[in-house]
Amino acid sequence: SHRLANKVAIVFGAGSDGKGWGNGKAAAVAYAREGASVVAVDLNREAVEQTCDVIRKENGVCRSRVADVTNAEQVAEAVRTTLEEFGKIDILHNNVGLAQMGDPIELPEEDWHKAINVNLTSVFLTMKHVLPHMVKNKSGAIVNISSLSAIRYTGYPYPAYNAAKAAVNQLTSSVALQYASYGIRVNAIMPGLIDTPLIYRQISAEYNTVEEMVAERNAQTPMGRMGSAWDVANAAVFLASDEANFITGVCLPVDGGQSVQ
Ligand code: NAD
């Protein structure tokens, strides 16, 4: 039987740029495969439509919406239309994230603010707009995609990103405590080194060849390989499901053992 039957999930950053299996697209598809109705939100219209196409081909329910997670009005509108159509939101999944290099001496102030807005303020904004409805239902599960880099150096000098992700962990546990008595659970996943299309664009510039990047990321992980977007999505399904009914305020590493290395 389906583990998320009759649930409604809103996934921010569900497009994965329309290329391959990024964390957001895999999460949206994984939720739908477990029976959830999915609202897939992204900046990239074509990409979220592709995510919904995959879900509909598998006879799932998906609506695509375009919104910028750093824009309060657009987040509010995505939440409002979801409630209008489906009547409730059981699962809020925050996948949007942006990693960028940045020696603090060189980093333009606007890039710092962008990193904080995209990685951290977005999580605040989506929770701000979804929580009132979860409170009314006295139930809900929020899954925030943080990063292992929130708690340890994973090989990349991304100070603004790492700082923002560390704050996502603390935001997760704070809100988990504030809303625990309402039956709302708030958890985070800290992916380690994951083999998603985004890394080939964002990180490959730091290596001479793509093969070098892949080999180094595989070698850095105790299990000898990068994770896949499905490793992250499967953890999200569990945290979002009733199987995790007594789990809240947790930041779960999905990292092939890197956090204890
Ligand atoms: P992804 O393929 O899921 O793509 C992210 C999506 O977010 C893209 O479709 C993009 O269009 C969308 N997006 C970007 N800015 C947006 C905005 N302002 N508003 C709305 N949508 C926006 O990317 P991914 O590499 O799989 O990573 C997703 C998450 O996983 C991020 O939070 C990232 O920090 C985290 N993460 C990834 C890794 C990794 O190795 N790939 C490791 C640790 C954490």
UniProtKB/TrEMBL annotation:
<dbReference type="InterPro" id="IPR036291">
    <property type="entry name" value="NAD(P)-bd_dom_sf"/>
</dbReference>
<dbReference type="Pfam" id="PF13561">
    <property type="entry name" value="adh_short_C2"/>
</dbReference>
<dbReference type="GO" id="GO:0016491">
    <property type="term" value="F:oxidoreductase activity"/>
</dbReference>
<keyword id="KW-0560">Oxidoreductase</keyword>
<dbReference type="InterPro" id="IPR020904">
    <property type="entry name" value="Sc_DH/Rdtase_CS"/>
</dbReference>
<dbReference type="InterPro" id="IPR002347">
    <property type="entry name" value="SDR_fam"/>
</dbReference>
<dbReference type="GO" id="GO:0008206">
    <property type="term" value="P:bile acid metabolic process"/>
</dbReference>
<comment type="similarity">
    <text>Belongs to the short-chain dehydrogenases/reductases (SDR) family.</text>
</comment>
<protein>
    <submittedName>
        <fullName>NAD(P)-dependent dehydrogenase (Short-subunit alcohol dehydrogenase family)</fullName>
    </submittedName>
</protein>
